[in-house]
Amino acid sequence: MIRNFVTVYPGHVDLPDMGQDATPANERRFPNDHLASVFEKTEAVAKQLDRFGWDTLWLAEHHFQHEGYEVLPNILMMAVHLAHVTKRLKTGCGFNVAPMWHPLRLAEDFATADILTGGRTVFGVGRGYHTREVETFGAPMRDQDANRALFEEQVEVIFKAFDSERFAHHGPHYDLPPRVPYRGYELEDLTLVPRPIHRPVECWQPIVSANPRGLDFMLRHGIKGMVGGGAATMAEGPIRGYQEAAARAGQDLKLGENLAIGIFFHLANTREQAIREITPFYEEHVKMFAPLGFVPGLTPEQAAAVARRGGWAAAGVPTVEHYMKLGAWFAGTPAQLVEHLQGMQARFPGLETINLSTSMCTPKAVMLEQFQWVAEAVMPAFRGPA
Q: How far apart are CA 226 and CA 206, in angstroms?
């Protein structure tokens, strides 16, 4: 049954215009003061979620985005700050892009956040999807096989460091420790200082396909999965793929168990009003993510069309109603959202965590209103009175 309500906020600043007739994504550029407003916005979102009983605010690590879409470069630092201004809300790393880190620096930084926040920082790792980010930091992104190989070795290193008081790792990318003399002896192993106190470390990773290799890797390390609600659109294939990977690993998981399933949502007094209000947010989402391959079903011609102002209908670009029919987006009344989530609960009997995310570039004021509305009119149907 659904028990946990979480949201993903990728770190967008408020935009002066939105939708297909607004500024094209690649033409957006904001001054530093406006980009820095993301920190105040993130704090306001966290306080609202904390006030109304949400479980986790998932943040995304991104870099160099002068367009204003994803502008939080260090979510572990943000998690420590948010723990100071909230009482119980957890901050999730959704996700630290491992190829842009040295794995031991990432392990150290998370351990520090784990201790300073009293266990209210949730670990998460991803492979990345922006060439501008990953390749700038010296890691492969265009070569997907090389990216995956690096990522998998990094995660191996991180969990060795978390789980072993003394560890060593000698692989294709990392020689840890190097064979060097140190204070009169030959270095043979390392100790992460500090190690996380709250263990075993709960780790999450995005699932954007049903690739057996990636899913088997997750199950081997006990990594939970987030399907939809971030860059990727929710689909049933990865949900079933995770259950099948669990079976291969000798685990009997119910469909949806150990997963957070995400949908983009918007509430209003009527379905028609909700669709009207969410449309510019949806269109801004498409402008951002279609060129990166995260809007399923678009043809190359349609992907090219969303980079221009207007004319989407002529190019056949799907409207938000199309993805509402597929179940990845929702617009309607609170009662209709309750019904929608109850349907998901019936389809995925192991589902405990639902990720309700506002769409890319939803203004701060709207986000705060939507999160309160869910808490007051939707959560009680699953948790009982607040």
A: 5
Of the pLDDT bands very low, low, confident and very high (cuts 50, 70, 90), residue 347 is very high
Examine the pLDDT at 158 and tell me if it is beyond 80: yes
Torsion of CA 286, 287, 291, 295, to 10 degrees: 0
Given a contact cutoff of 8 angstroms between Cβ atoms, the answer to whether 204 and 226 are in contact is yes
> What residue type is 82 in one-letter code?
L
Query: Which tokens in the block code for residue 286?
Result: 């498409």
pLDDT tens digits for 242-275? 999 999 999 999 999 999 999 999 999 999 999 9
CA distance 152 to 56: 26
Q: CA 201 to CA 93: how far, in whole Å?
A: 13
Write out the DSSP string of 67-83: TSSS--S-HHHHHHHHH
Going by C-alpha positions, the residue among 123, 55, 124, 122 that lies closest to residue 86 is 55
Most distant pair of Cα atoms in the chain: their distance: 74
| Antiparallel, parallel or unpaired: β 353-357 and 4-9 | parallel
Alpha-helical (H) ranges within 221-270 are 236-248
All structural domains of the chain: 4-94+207-383 (3.20.20.30)
Q: What is the DSSP string of 314-353?
A: HHTPPPHHHHHHHTSEEEE-HHHHHHHHHHHHHH-TT--E
Mean pLDDT, range 54-81, rounded to an integer = 98
